[in-house]
Amino acid sequence: MGRIWTPGGPQFVSRKHKYFDQILAPGISVAPPRRGDRDSSLSPALQLASPPPEGLPGVFPTPGDLSSTLSHLQLCPSVLEFEPRRDSPIARNRSQPLLEVSCTTMETRGMDSTGREFTNAEEMWREQIGEEDGHKKRQWYSNGVGYWEGVEASIDGVLGGYGHVNGADIKGSEGFLKTLLSDRLGPDFATHQRLVALDCGSGIGRVSKNLLLRYFNEVDLVEPVTHFIEAARESLPDDSVLDNHKAVNFYCQPLQEFTPEAGRYDVIWVQWCIGQLVDDDFVSFFKRAKVGLKPNGLFILKENIAKAGFVLDKEDHSITRSDLYFKELFNQCGLHLYKSKDQKGLPNELFAVKMYALTTNIPKRAHAAKTRSQTFKPAIIT
To answer: Where is this region: Disordered (predicted)?
Structure first.
């Protein structure tokens, strides 16, 4: 919905980040925050992140076969995100396909906003959405939309009281987008191509207005909260404006039910909204949305990142996933990581934010490195 993940307002986020965005490992416990804690008054238990147990960063398994890895992805949809040792399989070969990173030897731990711990994501999802008639899943989505229906349709509202981060967010996104468009479409992409983007979870059109409409001739918006999409419709230029950059379609629909028009988009932008989707709907959405991309199109996903496992927010019914959790879901979607970049300039009390560029085909290296024999081949003097 084009907003930062700040359920409960700035005070809640400040406490939540310091508490939950720590490495969760067996034998390590962190005292839960008090309701009134702020950064300046956090207890020592909240200020100090405990290091992982000896040897834990090296528990990544030796890459296994594809079928074995796939069979475990449904049971273990995320992995603790530890920096691997230089001698670990991941550190030795970072070019390995993501599917070769298995989670069979570790459990994914996570927490909810009340401080309750979960052994793994499967346990959490079973409790939240059930396994039978779909009633609990429908309630999950209804509660999520209901939360945002009570939020003011303004930049400060959709950013959870952090409206002042809008500038830094747009600046980081623009730098990433310009590089991607130049890589995929050529350095003169803006001069001879008519570009179209889809803004998913668009909220009030914050990203469309401040970024996408400056680079794309047409932008479509999809958003489930009625007063957000109406605010976007009122504030963005449309067909009645004599301008080569305009908002065209406004879809008031949740992502788990949305299917884009086939072959329409150069970029499908998804920011600060995918945490509302449960894992199976996350995968289903991207599989459906692939058909909306042009042959050289790509997805750009920008989201908060948990350092380990996941953090469930019970107030707005969303989940913050770790980097490895996301990468496993990308694999299930059949997507390939083209580039990624960390967002800079956001307040320290917030979760880290990462941008991912994803393609439907295996990315080609723009500048393949020369082989050793080519590099050191003696020149012929004539």
So the answer is: 28-63
